[in-house]
Structure of D-lactate dehydrogenase (Cytochrome):
Amino acid sequence: MASAFLPAIEALLGTGGVLTGDDVRMRSSDPFRQVPIEADVIVRPRTTQEVAGVLRIAAEHGATVVTHGGRTGVSGGAHSVAGEIILSLERMNQIESIDPVGQIIVAQAGVTLGALQQAAEEAGLYYPVDLGARGTATVGGTISTNAGGNRTLRWGMTRDRVLGLEAVLADGTIVSSMNRLVKNNTGYDLKHLFVGAEGTLGIVTRAIFRSVAKPTSHDVALVAVPDNDAMLALFTRLQRLPSLSAFEIMYPDLYRIVTEPEVQPRPLPLGAHVYVLVESMGYHAASDRDQFEAVLVELLESGVATDAVVAQSDAQRAALWRVRESVEVAVHAIAPLVMFDVSLGVSDIDRYVGDVRAKLDEQFPGAKLIVQGHVGDNNIHLGISVGADTAAQAHAIDAIVYRGLIPYEGSMSAEHGIGTEKNAWLHVSRNGAEIALMRVIKNALDPDNRLNPRVLF
């Protein structure tokens, strides 16, 4: 099928705009394992108009389109099949403008999150959505999944940072809703249709991001707590800090793996119930630091915390965050594994982890479980391995994790999206009426199911 539309796309995009053969096969659609790209062609537009042209050509030839950003997603959203077109936004990588007074950044969808953060910093601003994959993940991808990351607790998810965007529908129609205003109640706020839609309703090509003033204080500590009640007490007390920006946990099995001597130094000894990375970012450097340390001393003296280490320099801050972000080390240590991204009430997290552990021990003796996440905003990530049979047992593992959420009214996808790997479990978090309404919206904007056709449903 590609031979039918390829000449038209090559003429539209010019030199370097179309990849075929080994240039396609050498890429992977998964960040942790080699998942070959099965599509025959990758197209790389440079403008919104070129994206629209590609989608018009695809529609004329009945071709389906899978969108690629940084390919850091872990839910299979970038997977393709033979005969499909992969539309990569990697060449749409320009920061178009920055307004330091309005704290607004206009960027193309292929800009990496790290590049957006760097541009903000150079303008005296701070873009607070932050992920471990910041160097590769694109801002279009963060919009697609409504990514949250490390500092959602303080500044919200991607949806909260997007003022406006531009998207192209399946038939090539350009919907430009590049709103710069915080207040704009003029009918439906169309940008919210595309944030978190995983490319199923349209391809986001540009966006207007709302940043904040660059913080002048930055304090980080790693804290050990003896039990779940202590973890909850720690969180309750730290929430009174006006500058609290992160509350991240690591369960012991993961912490042990990522702090083995050959990986990096172990900041605190083993033996805690959980390890919590806490962070404060504010605008009163001296008083913020004093308040942060005073609260930690209070928590240590009361027994809520059994040990803590406070970063004394930029290098030490980075080292503590590196412990938290070394998840890939643990992933490779227990591979093969299945990864999960769930959300439930803070008070329910530890009990839920215990439920999962018990079910795994019952069905798969010797199973390995690693847990970490953004507890401050109800989100944990689990990695589960049952050995060589992990792939074959994926459905049974899914059932333990996802059915276990039902008593807690949790969500089976907090920030990674549904992709092509979780759609069978969407009913766990969405009722029939909600799913039916989602289908109505999908059918209205993409009636022939040409955009990311196996994603979500």
Notes: The chain is about 35% helix and 20% strand. The longest helix spans residues 285-302.
